[in-house]
Amino acid sequence: MNSRALLVFLAAIGCSGAPRGTRFADAPSGQSLVGAWDARLSLTRPYSLGVSTPTSRRICGTIGFVDNHRPGQDDATAVGVYDLDLARLGLGWMGEDAFPAALLSLPANSDVGANRIRDDSITIVLNPGSSERIVLLGRREAMGVDGEWFARSARGTASGSFSLRPHDSARRSC
Questions:
Q1: Cα(159)–Cα(174) distance, rounded to whole angstroms?
Q2: Which of 67, 102, 110 is nearest to 84 (CA)?
């Protein structure tokens, strides 16, 4: 993880002039997650063909989004970066060292868990261009987002739960 890139990204969000939390609450249908978020991922089911045992069942970190002004074939409404130690959950395909990218899509564009899609649903894809896509399917609540995640690779499928809360630098995330 390039921590300098994350700091620059979070500084750009912080200097945008919009009050914290406004974009999430005021966006039409609550689709916007623009801003910084405290993230928790818990492991329920590790990869069946894992090369190593997960060292943790829960990790915490930060994820941040900005509006996507250049939508492409992924139709992401927002793009972002994250700072999560996914390797502790047994994720991270063979040490692949890619930029920690995140894409936020509207529910209609999700190809995973289509039977769970509702008006208050969101889909976040971590590592969209890698050999190991991690998909977070969540439901917007008053306090943030809660849901499940799924990782698929040649090692099988891993899964768990997650939550996103507005970033609070004074509060410890785990």
A1: 20
A2: 102
CA 123 to chain centre: 8
- Calculate the alpha carbon distances from 23 to 61, 62, 110, 114 in Å: 21, 18, 22, 26
Minimum mean pLDDT among 64-68, 82-86, 103-107, 153-157: which range?
A: 103-107
Distance of CA 135 to the CA centre of its chain: 8
Residue 172: inside a domain, yes or no? no
pLDDT, tens digit (0-9, with 9 covering 90-100), for 107-149: 654 444 444 445 678 999 998 888 888 999 999 888 899 999 9
CB 118 within 8 A of CB 107: yes
Measured distance CA(143)–CA(152) in Å, rounded: 29
**Whether the model pTM is above 0.70:** yes
Q: Could you tell me the residue range of the domain that residue 65 belongs to?
A: 3-166
The total domain count for the chain is 1
